[in-house]
Write a structure and sequence with these properties.
It contains 6 helices and no strands. The chain is mainly alpha-helical. The model has no long low-confidence stretch (mean pLDDT about 85).
Length: about 100
């Protein structure tokens, strides 16, 4: 009841209030956006090729880099995005517009 009354008073005063859940969702979204912005151009290329379905060796051939370089980039992407595997990475990339599906 106190929280509701405080929210009503805040709204009357022209202030916005957010539930703890909404605040947490906003913070998470901001963190993900910041992490996404930190991907290098090469990491974005690797991500795009991975979403296209290429395996590490195929990505290495396409980008003319070593297999270990591709693995390094994938590891960096996973770390920056806070993901666990390639499948999560592909889904995240598509959901968040990191890969333009029209270009695939």
């Amino acid at each position: 009841a106190r929280e509701l009354a405080a929210a009503i008073r805040a709204a009357k005063a022209g202030k916005m209030t957010l539930s703890p859940e909404a605040t947490q969702a906003l913070v998470r979204a901001a963190q993900q956006a910041q992490e996404t912005e930190t991907l290098t151009e090469r990491e974005r290329e690797v991500l795009k090729l991975m979403v296209e379905g290429l395996n590490n060796a195929e990505i290495a051939d396409r980008l003319v880099v070593s297999l270990s370089t591709v693995k390094y980039h994938i590891s960096n992407i996973l770390g920056k995005l806070g993901l666990d595997d390639r499948t999560q990475m592909a889904v995240y990339a598509i959901k968040n517009g990191l890969v333009d599906l029209a270009e695939l």
